[in-house]
Amino acid sequence: MGASRGGNDQSRERLVALVLLLQSAPKSEPLSQEVIVRELMVDEYPVSAKGPRKVRAYEGNEAAIRQKFERDKARIRDLGFHIDTVTIGDTVGYRIDPASGYAPPINFSDAEERVVQMALRFCGFGKSGAFSVFNEGPASDGGVKFTNDYTPMLRALHQRRALRFDYHSSANRARAVEPLVIDFFGDATYLVARVKGTDEIKGYRVDRITSMPVVLNDTFQVDEATAQLAKAWRPAFSKGPAPVDVVFTTNQNYATLLLSQFPDAVAASKKGGKVEVSISFDNLNAARDFILEAAERVRLQWPKALRTELVDWLGRVNRGKVPALESLKFAGTSTNDVLGQTLQLLHAVYVAPDGLRISDLARRFELDRDQVRYIMDRLVSFEPMGGHYGFPAHVVKECDDWDNEESDDSTYFASFSDAHGSTSPSPLLWRDLFELNIALREASRVYSDPAVQSAIDKIEAAAAAFVQVESPSNEPFIGHVQSAVAEHAQIKIAYTPGTAQEASIRLIEPREMKALNGHTYARAYCTTRQAWRTFRVDRISAILAKSPVTEERAPDGATNWLTQVGDEGVEVVVVMEAPLRWLFEPLPGAQWLALEDGRHAVKFRVGDESFLDHLMLRAGGGAVVASPQYAKAGHELAARIAEWL
Q1: In the chain, pLDDT over 90 holds for what percent of residues?
Q2: Res. 480: pLDDT tops 50
Q3: Domain ranges (residues) in the chain
Q4: Which numeric CATH code is attached to 244-315?
Q5: Model-level pTM?
Q6: Residue 491: per-residue pLDDT
Q7: 480-489 average pLDDT score
Q8: Are strands 623-625 and 570-576 parallel, antiparallel or unpaired?
Q9: HEC states along 275-340?
Q10: Domain 562-644 fold
């Protein structure tokens, strides 16, 4: 490879060519390894030449070719595509049924497309998929944990077929299940399924699935009683049906706020202005998370088991061994991610009738323009197998200035007149339907629009799978805040920020709302502080007044106001156990690295040290900061809470 440019790029091109090629192979004519190795051609860019030359994608001795081919198939399966192995006579061939990865096309009305765009922005969902199809700009912060696992799970739900995957609970082992419903509870997704060969209904947290789920050939039937049991499943059932009653004391202000958030809570006044509050939680973990968020505002009375759990948790916050920071080499996007990224660019062009310019694609996917040009130019030049098999679409390039092609803001569009007469393919993967469904259901709590429900109905008709969303019931003033956004109004609120003991009176002008991890946030100009601030809606205890906005405000300078991380701030590296990835994956701009000991490292920027303190508090003993300047992040906060316990 010393005589050609771009070390990894030929591998990427080979992967993309193989994916598109296998999707184009008809059922009656699957492609054998021998044919693919002999005829699949890709571009190579010699150092001494201005343009590419065609070379075989698979070269080397027989053993090396076989290993490379098997590796490529595994990478393609990791994207959620299923490669069919077909035997015809003595020949073994391969093909990808496009329906294994792509969902059926959905024709949204103009009103439905508008609410889909709005919902994706509200939740920050689909940065790696659906968002770029429906929105012209890049997705901002927020979002649901991204995983290709959703693709085979939704396909199995659609086809009523069993799934097999590895799952880590007390130990990592293989599971075979019949999927019934996907549940989204605030900040975590669960696959609710019947254990294959039994009547037992269990929930599997998606971020604990440790292998790509495989859709089995076994089909199954579900009666109404079983379907209702699956819909009634809650995460508490994985620990046992007994709730955890938590008793604590707090001040009158915080007690009032909690009573508005938890309608079933019970409160009683005590001496010295204190209030004793009792709240029932589904399990010990939920109770622990509540106390950690309440911090110094509550003093725990009962149960003792929770106190023991908290003391242990707090003592392990941001403590543990980390590799030397200089040994962590974040190489950027992995081969798998680059393959997914290339397919995203391709399908964005598929759904743009007038094509998309390099600048459009760079903005949507937050990529460098030269990188977009490089990837798309290779898609233009793809001619594997001498054109014997067509792709779903051929990418065509148009330049305004062909003499200066290397700097022209070229336009790419798709031509669907291939050898098989394909119509325009669906731009949506099965996982995209999941993101759309979740985003619309979350947004329906805030936006009252008939198009939201009609869009959900179309998605569920295409997926034939019911996705449940456990919406928070502790945001009584969410409608008031949304009304202020819509009417460009100023509202006077009683607000208890962060870990404050008492409420303060604020005059705010809400401009935007977003959802993250089960909570709704509002970005507003605070006239009390004379600055842009972020407010969590469930911390508002009263709306005291409302009036029209009368002044223009300076633009909000925060790009990622929800998480306060992104392109600005100080760079931080955190090392964590694999099951904790879900907590850090919504952070915009995060780069990931898998370590030899099974842990993962993430690099991101943070503009507010208190954000990092609370992030490490939520992570507990499963994560540690590798950046020396933040080696004690969360320690002081954890110590204060422990002392108050």
Answers
A1: 32
A2: yes
A3: 1-98, 244-315, 478-548, 562-644
A4: 3.30.70
A5: 0.73
A6: 97
A7: 94
A8: antiparallel
A9: EEEEEEECCHHHHHHHHHHHHHHCEEEECHHHHHHHHHHHHCCCCCCCCCHHHCCCCCCCHHHHHH
A10: Alpha-Beta Plaits (3.30.70)
